[in-house]
Amino acid sequence: MASTPTRPAGGRHHVVIVGAGFGGLFAAKRLADADVDVTIIDRTNHHLFQPLLYQVATGVLSSGEIAPTIRQILRKQKNTRVVKAEVREIDVDARTVTGDLGGREVVLQYDSLILAAGAGQSYFGNDHFAEFAPGMKSIDDALEIRARITGAFERAEITTDPEEKRRLLTFVIVGAGPTGVELAGQVAEMAHRTLRNEFRDIDTDSARILLVDGSPQVLPPFGKNLGKKAQKKLEKLGVEVVTDSLVTNVDAEGVTWKSMKTEKETTVGSYCKIWSAGVAASPLGRMVTEQIDGVDADRAGRVPVGDDLTIDGHKEIFVVGDMMSHDRLPGLAQVAIQGGQFVADVIRGEVEEGRTSRPAFSYHDKGTMAIVSRFYAVVKIGDREITGFPGWLMWLAVHMMFLVGFRNRFVAAYSWGLNSLSPNRWNLVATRQQLHGRNILRRLRELEDEQGIRSVMVRDNLKVGEGRDIRPTTD
Ligand SMILES: Cc1cc2nc3c(=O)[nH]c(=O)nc-3n(C[C@H](O)[C@H](O)[C@H](O)COP(=O)(O)OP(=O)(O)OC[C@H]3O[C@@H](n4cnc5c(N)ncnc54)[C@H](O)[C@@H]3O)c2cc1C
């Protein structure tokens, strides 16, 4: 049954924000006390600080420390309502957004729409790789990767076949951007420092960590010099860096790549594979552009916007962050934050002061950074390059500033302090659900397609497979 569109009582201008990531949350916060009603809708119940996901995956932080709930963050903001639902439909002409939570539908009518649904992992047309090599975009992904990393060592400990032991102790990370570099550094530290004395039948020091990328260097956006320094540091940590190489296959057994220089194909056996090599904007962008004549999403699904960050001919639809294509701006937290704040100011100015002309968005580059190991980070701010301990201190200061919530900042600082001094990590718990959940859900969806089982039964009540032991094909 179709639901009736809802809007808050009182008849104020209604701003609907899709996504409570960096763009959406900072837009909502900027609208606190504005003379508007705000509804922020997200498929998760938390605001995720994605740049620290790799620390959850490698046991430095726990998930709660980087993902406070959206309701808690906005609890004092009286003009704002939080809706937890996955947006499945946006009707540009009717100005409605339809969300779904386990078969329950909510339809919201907007006066202004802020699209901030971010991006997902892209496997460049090889979506089947995802079964064997999870990306890192969500808490679920980070916990699955943690379970795969720790699971590899556990399996190696009880394996007698030397070749299989070697496969289990080989970790392949695809994509040498900041996430890949940070992960590779952390897996190396786990193998050589954290887990060193914890196993009896394997030498964790012998673990092979490979970082593979199609570019000629690691950290391409940081430039040649910083890329070289980061690579040198990684190699010192025991990471094997493979550049100029395109991954051509990922399966349960391992990874194959082809050198772009020599055309030579190399296959490496590996149990734990991680994908950090590409992003595609939320499909909601394409859903919206398909309804508007003359506007097309780009190849990565990003929506082109004008200087006021709206879609041509639709002054009421703003797009910010990883979903927008504007001025070749990169997919960075600061781009999303500044975009979110800018559009909130535009809406506020028009509703409260009756402004008729719109300013142009101007991005202030605050720099990019990546941590390679304990006490070593690379930072690029305009033409300035900072490396090593000073870079690490800057990284620390920036992450403390932007982590949401005093408690989270306090706990993260405490964890980083402890982690710097001690080889131990206190967040390495891994469960079967974390390891298998994503692939089981994928199998359930396949069953749903093959047998016509209603999605609400699968997703909400998990009727399919209930009580049966469903093993995913990866294990
Ligand atoms: C592992 C990793 C490391 C990173 N490291 C850095 C870094 O060091 N520095 C940096 O500047 N940037 C970094 N980034 C990039 C940065 O996190 C993004 O640019 C930023 O999060 C984009 O903000 P956004 O608001 O556009 O999207 P997001 O922050 O991704 O938020 C999107 C929100 O929309 C919600 N959503 C999506 N689809 C739907 C739907 N259909 N219905 C309802 N809700 C939906 C999601 O649940 C999410 O809450 C990193 C990203 C990742 C994944």
From TrEMBL:
Cited SUPFAM superfamilies: FAD/NAD(P)-binding domain (SSF51905)
Gene3D superfamilies attached to this UniProt entry: 3.50.50.100
Domain FAD/NAD(P)-binding: 14-340
Enzyme Commission number(s) of this protein: 1.6.5.9
Pfam families reported in the protein's UniProt record: Pyr_redox_2 (PF07992)
Keyword Isomerase: no
Keyword Flavoprotein: yes
Catalysed reactions, semicolon-separated: a quinone + NADH + H(+) = a quinol + NAD(+)
Name of this chain's protein: NADH:ubiquinone reductase (non-electrogenic)
Gene Ontology molecular-function annotations: NADH dehydrogenase (quinone) (non-electrogenic) activity
Top-rank taxon: Bacteria
Keywords: FAD, Flavoprotein, NAD, Oxidoreductase
Homology family: Belongs to the NADH dehydrogenase family.
